[in-house]
């Protein structure tokens, strides 16, 4: 599995609309055959920073993603909204998605 985390810092005057603006891109990515998950969160420390957690089945699925029309379209308009170059972690890990945390479970 290709596991990716990206921090996007958005221009303050545009951060309020970021999640609406990436909605079509997010939907299209989630519909890709090799996408396992694609989830946005807002930073609790910086209201203008969004964290994207995503995973793809393998390198071929990741390559298909970056070659997709919706990816290319997003890369064309995103530079006008970001305040800095996004930071990324991109690693290959065993498995095919989330696992249960062994150290914690709900009480009865």
From TrEMBL:
Q: Which Gene3D superfamilies match?
A: 3.30.70.100
| A Gene Ontology molecular function term of the record | monooxygenase activity
Q: Name any one Pfam family assigned in the record.
A: ABM
Keywords (alphabetical) are:
Monooxygenase, Oxidoreductase
Q: Which residues form the ABM domain?
A: 2-90
The residues that cross the membrane are: none
In terms of PANTHER family, this protein maps to:
ABM DOMAIN-CONTAINING PROTEIN, QUINOL MONOOXYGENASE YGIN-RELATED
What is this protein called in UniProt?
Answer: Quinol monooxygenase
């Amino acid at each position: 599995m290709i596991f990716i985390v990206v921090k996007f810092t958005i221009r303050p005057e545009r951060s309020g609309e970021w999640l609406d603006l990436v909605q079509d891109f997010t939907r299209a990515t989630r519909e890709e055959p090799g996408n396992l998950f694609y989830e946005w969160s807002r930073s609790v420390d910086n209201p203008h920073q969004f964290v994207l957690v995503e995973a793809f089945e393998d390198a071929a699925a990741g390559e298909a993603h970056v070659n997709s029309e919706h990816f290319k379209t997003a890369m064309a308009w995103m530079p006008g909204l970001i305040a800095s170059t996004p930071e990324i972690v991109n690693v290959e890990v065993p498995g095919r998605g989330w696992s249960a945390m062994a150290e914690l479970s709900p009480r009865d």
